[in-house]
Amino acid sequence: MDGRKLGQVVFLVGIFVAIPVLIVAPLARSWADWVIYAVIVVGTFGAFRAVRERQYTTQKRTFVRHYDDQR
After folding, report:
1. Does the pLDDT value for residue 62 go beyond 70?
2. pTM greater than 0.85
3. Which of 15, 23, 34, 70 stands the most exposed, by the fewest C-beta atoms within 10 Å?
4. pLDDT confidence of residue 63
5. What is the rounded (10 degree) CA torsion for 16, 21, 27, 29?
6. Cβ atoms of residues 63 and 69 within 8 Å
7. Are 37 and 24 within 8 A, CB to CB?
8. Which residues neighbour 9 within 8 Å (Cβ) at sequence distance 6 or greater?
9. Which pLDDT band, with edges at 50, 70 and 90, does 32 fall under?
10. How far, in Å, are 4, 34, 48, 68 from residue 63 at the CA level?
11. Are 37 and 26 in contact, with CB atoms under 8 Å apart?
């Protein structure tokens, strides 16, 4: 990763972290609220990863039946 792309990644991650923290900080009354917010964020990222479309096709797998072993 070159320096320019790394800088862009750091900037975007900073924005995506700073904005929700600034919005949520006045609403959080205790550490338990922060735990709930963290669970929501982690669950959202997990859902995004689970439903993400595959970029590469999977290899075709062959299915072989052996009738000799059944009797």
Report:
1. no
2. no
3. 70
4. 67
5. 140
6. no
7. yes
8. 1
9. very high
10. 48, 49, 31, 15
11. no
